[in-house]
Amino acid sequence: MLTAVAILIDGLGFAAWLFLSSVGLTLIYGVMRILNIAHGGFYALGAYSSAWAIGLYMQTGSSVAFTYLLIPLMAIVVGLVAGLIIERGILRFMYGRDEVLMVLVTYAIFLILEDATKLIWGTESLVAYQPAYYLGNIEIFGIPYTVYKFALIGLAVLCGAVLWWGLNRTTTGKLLLVVIEDREVSSALGINVTLFFSATFVIGTTLGALGGAVTAPQISVVPGIGAEVIVMAFAVIVIGGMGSIGGAIIGAIFVGFARAVSVHLYPPAELFSIYLVMAAVLAIKPYGLFSLAQGRKI
Amino acid sequence: MMNLDRTEKLLLAGIPILILLGFVLPEWVVNYIQVSLGTGLVALAVMIQMRAGLVSFGQGLYFCIGGYAAGMAGKFMGVSDIFILLIIGMLVSLFMAFIAGFLLRRYREIFFAMLSLALSMILYGLLSKLEVLGSTDGFNIPSPTYLGWAPEGDTAKHALYIATCIPALLCAALLNRYLRSPMGFIGEALRENEIRLEYLGTSAHRAVHIKYMIAATVSGLGGVLWALALGHVDPEMTNWTTSGQFVFISILSGVGNIVAPLFGTFILEIVRVYAVEASPNTWQMILGVIMLLTIIFLPKGLWSLIQRKKASAEETTQK
Fold first, then answer.
1. Closest residue of A to B283, CA-based?
2. Is B51:B179 a contact under the CB 8 Å cutoff?
3. If you average pLDDT over every residue of chain A, what do you get?
4. Per-residue 3-state assignment (H helix, E strand, C coil) for chain B
5. DSSP summary character for residue A99
6. Which sequence ranges are marked TM in the entry (chain A) (predicted)?
7. Which helix (H) or strand (E) covers residue A182, if one does?
8. How far apart are the C-alpha atoms of A212 and A49, rounded to whole Å?
């Protein structure tokens, strides 16, 4: 019973983290057909910049409460700066190229970002525990949990809801759905596709950076976290079907619970279980659980 | 009679040359040649798949399986004969690829890339938790013997170097032969138009499966040679960042010729030594920038420069 509750809460916690870290990836793929390996780099940038900003802010000795504003702020700054530079500076020239080639291009960008992070913040680890510590602990059936973890679950739900509302209930969102459906026709109808691409890339980047920024208080931020998270994020979005926000939610829950179950029942299988779920889903439904049937072009 | 083409002649002539160089060149250069022959074979494996339009972001899987299979044969069964180790590494890789191939042959493009990456990360997750195999530290491999002969000191180094050169270059020559065979040309047809290929009476699935198994066997061989050269294996061999480097080499050198990835690996290893020394935190950035520039300005890799030069030279002589 106790284990079941622990698995449930940890599973939700992992799922929330996975959703936040991978929803930007699926959004960018859905709109731009770019499987963005550089997403891991954005995650790392977000984590570093928020840990660094929190560290600077805490030195002034002010109240911790404002750090909760600092976290999304840094994510937006990273999203705007890195997202715009990369989209306008590099990706813009590559639109319409092969999807596999775009994987290689974003891999190159990922390598550049990895070292850019090291050059800006050095190779030592950054710690910014205050926001997670400040909210205190809560006991559920005698197991202590940080309230921060529940705040993250709430944030993930909020992000999902805002994205759903934005896509399905606003004019801009509906236009974006049109762009996803058919890029050429929507361009012919007078939709500024380029603008949508830039905006989507910036939003996707911001979401990736936000994933890193909210994780930073729970971990010590070290080089290489981007490489770990990108594979995890792939697993999440592939399970649900790439490009689908709903798929990312389901994928995050699948992977989150697979990880929670293995952590509590058989810890050595932690990493292994995630990719096993991914391989199993793909073996049964090759293009993800929610993919639509597509015609073959001869 | 053997109908050797230029590349094969070059590779076969390269065997005695490399062996002789092993006695002449300073030791550290020889070490780099030896190590990069191992990793170069894996880059070759990535490259022959790239010819069919398949980008394997998880070729480290078989690199690692080869290395670990040989290492475990030595650790648990006391096998130290290099010929048996090489055969074990290749057979285990071949067998794993035979099974995984049934899953992977259904995928193309990014799905192939991502699924091969996922498979390699399954092994990474497994190995980094297995304490019997030293978890993330891996384990050491004793130096090999040659049909009962167990050399020591400098002789052992030379013997291992020679035993690396011969299978690596022979393997490259055989791969060249494969690419010139009907099976090899199917790879290119696969990239161009799979459905037409099926109408012409060949199974695309079977062609991908065979290609995947060949690539895995070659990577397994590379893994054994690399592991013996370093005397050590660890799970980093199957991490996706390692596989990414193999992809990088095939992009840089292009898919034009078998020799290119072998050279590319060696040059990269040497450049890395100096670059890391000069500025340790910009190595990946340099790689990334070079890769972007290659993709944008030289989509067929550096080898296309040589080919273009050759083509223009022929043109002028014809005039």
1. A115
2. yes
3. 83
4. CCCCCHHHHHHHHHHHHHHHHHHHCCHHHHHHHHHHHHHHHHHHHHHHHHHCCCCCCCCHHHHHHHHHHHHHHHHHHCCCEHHHHHHHHHHHHHHHHHHHHHHHCCCCHHHHHHHHHHHHHHHHHHHCCCHHHCHHHCEECCCCEECCECCCHHHHHHHHHHHHHHHHHHHHHHHHHHHHCHHHHHHHHHHHCHHHHHHCCCCHHHHHHHHHHHHHHHHHHHHHHHHHHHCEECHHHHCHHHHHHHHHHHHHHCCCCCHHHHHHHHHHHHHHHHHHHHCHHHHHHHHHHHHHHHHHHCCCCCHHHHHHHHHHHHHHHHC
5. H
6. 6-29, 41-59, 65-87, 99-121, 141-167, 188-213, 219-239, 272-293
7. none
8. 9
Does any domain span residue A135?
yes
- Whether A291 is covered by a domain: the verdict is no
Whether B222 and B45 have beta carbons less than 8 Å apart is answered as yes
Q: What pLDDT is stored for residue A297 in this prediction?
A: 45
Give the orientation angle of helix A171-181 with respect to helix A193-215, to 10 degrees.
110
Helix (H) or strand (E) holding A126: strand A126-127
User: Which residues on chain A are in Cβ contact (under 8 Å) with B240?
Assistant: 227, 231
Contact call for A234 and B117, based on CB within 8 A:
yes
Residue B147 has pLDDT above 60, yes or no: yes
Token look-up 């510590």 returns A133
Task: CATH number of the domain at A179, please.
Answer: 1.10.3470
Residue B305 maps to a domain: yes
pTM of the model: 0.86
Residue A295 has pLDDT above 60, yes or no: no
> In CATH, what number is assigned to the domain containing residue B234?
1.10.3470
The three-state (H, E, C) secondary structure of A1-31, written as one string: CHHHHHHHHHHHHHHHHHHHHHHHHHHHHHH
Q: Is residue A295 part of a domain?
A: no
Answer yes or no: is the ipTM higher than 0.85. no
Report the pLDDT value the prediction gives residue B319, as an integer from 0 to 100. 54
Report pLDDT digits (tens) over A62-101: 777 787 888 888 888 888 888 888 888 888 888 777 888 8
Instruction: Note whether residue A297 is domain-resident.
Output: no
| CB contacts < 8 A (A, B) | 119
Mutation pick from B99, B105, B295 vs chain A, by most beta carbons of A within 10 Å, is B295
Q: How many domains does chain A have?
A: 1
Q: In this model, does residue B58 exceed pLDDT 50?
A: yes
Question: Which residues from chain B sit within 8 angstroms of residue A123, using beta carbons?
Answer: 281
**What's the domain count of chain B?**
1
What is the CB-side half-sphere exposure of residue A168 using CA atoms within 13 A? 8
* Sign for the pseudo-dihedral over CA of A199, A204, A209, A214: positive
